[in-house]
Design goal:
alpha+beta, two-stranded antiparallel ribbon
Amino acid sequence: MRPVRTARAVAAVLSVVTALLSPSAAHAAVPAPVLAVAPGDTVTLPVRDALAALPVQGESRTGYERAKFKHWTDADRDGCNTRMEVLKAEAVTAPAQGPNCVLSGGSWYSAYDDRYLDSASKLDVDHLVPLAEAWDSGASQWTAKERESYANDLDDARDLIAVSAASNRSKADKDPSEWLPPYGGYRCQYDTDWIADKTRWGLSIDPVERDALTQQLADCPDQPITVTLAR
């Protein structure tokens, strides 16, 4: 991972991120001063600035199929797929691991609805920005390999989260203009992580989503987010 940029570089990073994420970026030169912002680079900036940097455009679900995001995979071939890796990483009390990565015992905290759960079978591993929302926001143009990487992203703990099955299914594929976690104490973190996730993957937001996030963040700390760009 490359070093996190200093606060003095934030303004320059923001301008370049905005340029690179804009729909016209492929046809326009990045203005000077040139500050490299590319996959693998790490940027730090206030969440409201990160929101402002996201490109705003309409969404289309044409052609979406969940199967176009291959998951859950076992990238390191240790017998535990992505879902199981998240469950192990987020356990409050570590479960016992049996053959074929079957988990028994353990406990988990579901931040969406402020609940503790005592069985892996009671949890879903949620894509914070749902697969369908990612498709709508730019992933329809990605390669199959990029979509697989997105669907199994273990390199940023904000992208996948273990939550109660009930709260995840209530959320479905909704964005923050349509759904927020039932537990009010988690909502600022949810919006902040949503923006970090979209920044990491170079995804757009639609106007209604932007307005909802802007309004919701007005009641939240303008905390800095650090994001390593995936693409």
